[in-house]
Amino acid sequence: MSKPIMAKATAVWLVDNTTISFKQIADFVGMHELEVQGIADGDVAAGVKGFDPIANNQLTQEEIDAAEKNPSHKLKLKFNPAAQGEEKRRGPRYTPLSKRQDRPASILWLVKFHPELTDGQIGKLVGTTKPTIQAIRDRTHWNISNIQPIDPVALGLCKQSELDAAVQKAAAKKAREGEVMSDDERRKLVSTEQSLEMEAEPKIPTAIEGLETFTLSGDDSDDDDKSDSDYADADSFFSLPGDSDDDEEEDAKS
């Protein structure tokens, strides 16, 4: 459901000028019921001037009266023909400054796991330019050695529904063009949730790499027999080389 503009200021006005319940106001403006209660207590939105939804063509007085009489009545935003289509995105996607550094990682993820997506589709998903996408495809990006592929949905650069819609559209286009995808490409046509649930392949640490094929030469049974026979006697185990000769010389002198 569409929400009113200046939601917090509208909630302030409704709290101050009507007897509508906190729950009804919260549902209408898209806030939590406790936050609306905080507005009534003066703990939230202190100093915020109320925004009259009736004067600004967002609510009718009849709608407010119906909500005051019936606590279960849900406020409905007044239909405004001039506002139709305003919720649709116009122009390139805006990416916050804090997330713009994550775009190369998301581009690499899309190029790697969804090669069927065009540069235009990737640009719309993460809000980037075609030269940047091409540089990552060709691995000529200045920071390509430090970029790790990360899911754009996990980074908050696009929604899961938008990514799934783009993948399905690309797959349908390939089907119309008669291109037959390989099994490897078909396995890549999965949603982000499925790809994140894939188990990582077990990796061997580099420090012990190659030890999995290491084997001892010779027969282990021979070594066991030899060790048992050599060290069966404790005295022989602790005797040092040359001890037997010294003992014989001392016996001869005596």
TrEMBL record:
Extent of Acidic residues compositional bias: 219-233, 243-254
Pfam family, one: TrcR
Region annotation Disordered: where it falls in the sequence: 70-100, 192-254
This protein's name: DUF1013 domain-containing protein
Species assigned in the record: Sulfitobacter sediminis
